[in-house]
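Go through this pair.

…
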Amino acid sequence: MTASIHPVRDLPTQYVLRPADTCLILSQRLASGGCTPIIEEDIAITNMALDLGSVVARGLLTLAGQMNQRAGGE
């Protein structure tokens, strides 16, 4: 049985992947909050959290992919 996902062994790539994962997790947690009494503010905060978190994560994940390709990964 072969694995379809191969873990990245390159340490600099792992160093970039961890903050990218953290951005995604934190934006999801902020989006699920529902902590404001006004629905419009709650929706706005949710949208901003998901937008900004995904922009940062996308940049970091793109960088990690480029680093992995340079290191000889897939």
Q: What stands out?
A: The chain has two helices and no strands. The mean pLDDT is 79.
